[in-house]
Design a protein that fits this description.
The chain has 193 residues and is an alpha+beta fold. 33% of the residues lie in helices and 32% in strands. It is built from six helices and six strands. It has a five-stranded mixed beta barrel. A hairpin with a 5-residue loop joins strand 5 and strand 6.
């Protein structure tokens, strides 16, 4: 079943269960936040393709994540700060811009990875993520209770954080099984550490 969502396109990536803090200052995104807060229209976090021009049709990649606002605050610089959480994967079917250049899309829901027990093949990925939480307090604030024994959760968080090409992030997030993603991430880490 398709529905219409506003899009918040970024170079950052989020999947279901993921959290992200954002500074909102453009009028179109302030409107997006207001509409979401009032229950008028939901929104999705979409990934930008940096390899095409800003006005290219493929500037926003097709796989995105519907999100909700968990928290908001006024930042020290007076801007609006929000914390969003991914709730479901979606695919953008058709996209257009409204008068203020806010991107809106007709989307269809995709299945998300089910909660799956982490295999013994990935102890380094769990340990490394725990170390990331220790090294980056802001990340630890987002995930005070990490689900390190859940393969889907761990694969999603690594995929959000890894500095890999957006197209590869899209490809790995489209896999039907989180273990395919974990295998690829573990291989990438071994060869880029």
């Amino acid at each position: 079943m398709s529905k219409q969502l506003a899009l918040f396109p970024l170079s950052s990536f989020i999947l279901p269960g993921g959290k992200m803090r954002l500074r909102v200052f453009e009028k179109r995104y302030i409107r997006l936040v207001k509409e979401a807060g009032l229950g008028k229209r939901s929104f999705a976090m979409a990934l930008l393709n940096p390899f095409v021009s800003q006005h290219h049709r493929d500037r926003i990649l097709p796989l995105a994540t519907e999100a909700v606002i968990d928290d908001f605050e006024q930042l020290s610089d007076g801007l609006l700060g929000i914390t969003v959480r991914g709730i479901r994967r979606i695919e953008i079917m058709d996209r257009w811009q409204e008068e203020d250049n806010l991107n809106v899309a007709t989307v269809t829901e995709l299945s998300s990875w089910p909660e799956t027990r982490l295999s013994q093949r990935y102890p380094d990925l769990a340990k490394s993520f725990l170390q990331l939480l220790a090294d980056y307090p802001q990340l630890q604030q987002l995930y005070p209770e990490p689900e390190l024994d859940n393969a889907s959760w761990l694969a999603s968080r690594w995929l959000e954080l890894m500095p890999i090409q957006p197209g590869l992030k899209q490809k790995l997030s489209a896999e039907q099984d989180p273990f395919v993603c974990l295998d690829n991430l573990q291989h990438w880490l071994e060869h880029n550490s």
